[in-house]
Amino acid sequence: MVVSSSDHTPHLPEGYKALTSDAGAYEDKLRLVFNVRGERSLEILNGLVTADLVAVRGDAAFPTLILTPKGRVLADAVVIHLAGEVLLDVPASAWSDLELHFTTYMPPRFAQLEPSRLRVVRIHGPRTTERERTNTILFNMDHPVYTERDGSHRAVARFRDGFAVRLAEGFDLYLPPDQAHGLDLPSVSDEAWEVWRIERGIPQFGQDISKENLPPETDLVAECVSFAKGCYTGQEVLARIHYRGHVNRHLRGIHIPGPTTGVALQTGDELMLDEKNIGTVTSGALSPVHGWIGLGYVRREVEPGAEVIVRRDGHDADVPVFATVTNLPFAL
């Protein structure tokens, strides 16, 4: 968690300035990458994820979700299809559950997972594209494509001894260990990345998303789910919610306005309104721009703009700590 030396001189974690005013590189050590081998690897994988991996002819990367049969989020994932190769990028914290899931639903005769040496390096910042003008491979990649019913897909290309995936703002690089640190960009610390992702409302599996969540709660459906594809694990539950129902809570931003001394937002903090628990904080950090901010799940009837009280360990503070429920991302 970020700390501040005073309310007037906020601490800038290493790499935060690069992410917000230049461009920086962050090695995401919380992800695992696998090669998916087998004569029907893409077909088998398509039946296990929410994106439509076969709707796009040619090379592409697909942000997606892997669901339990009851429609809960087992993991967020990225599937990369390039020149016949298939890669799967998943959170390390989900692997024990995923391993059992794949053992059950992935016939080894047709598809198998093999650990890859590739590491995930995230390149972000307002000057990312400007810095990459001299790198024609990255600069000429198309922006992601979004459709209302099909989710999204991203351009992918060979890059060094790995892959590059074009994001709406920035790139995800998949590189061998010896190349992950050889980029001519400032390095971003875990601390800076945590602040930056919370400011932008990016949930992290194991922190803001777990197998207790339904996809519509997480705000990832538009990007990760196709409602036009055929059957996949968990589809029936998700379709029923989408067409005929709703979820009872949504991922929201939480902001403590005013001075930062003596207050904080921490994972597990309860959010109270009219003496009722209406939500829980899942991530918190001290932003140099906004002060204390966090992500959390809030009941659907509580609208952005509502003022709530932050309660920790089941107890109210001596002086009430007020916070505001906000839309995501936080104003940048």
Description of the structure:
- The structure is a single chain.
- By secondary structure, the chain is an alpha+beta fold.
- The chain has helices spanning 16-21, 41-46, 95-105, 128-131, 136-139, 177-180, 190-199, 215-218, 221-224, 235-244; strands at 24-28, 31-37, 60-67, 73-82, 85-91, 112-115, 119-124, 145-147, 151-153, 156-159, 162-166, 171-175, 249-256, 270-273, 276-287, 291-299, 307-311, 321-326.
- It folds into 2 domains: 16-199, 2-Layer Sandwich (Gyrase A, domain 2), CATH 3.30.1360; 248-332, Beta Barrel (Elongation Factor Tu (Ef-tu), domain 3).
- The protein has 10 helices and 18 strands.
- The strands form 4 sheets. It has a 6-stranded antiparallel β-barrel with strand order 13-16-15-14-17-18.
- The longest helix has 11 residues, at 95-105.
- The two termini are 20 Å apart.
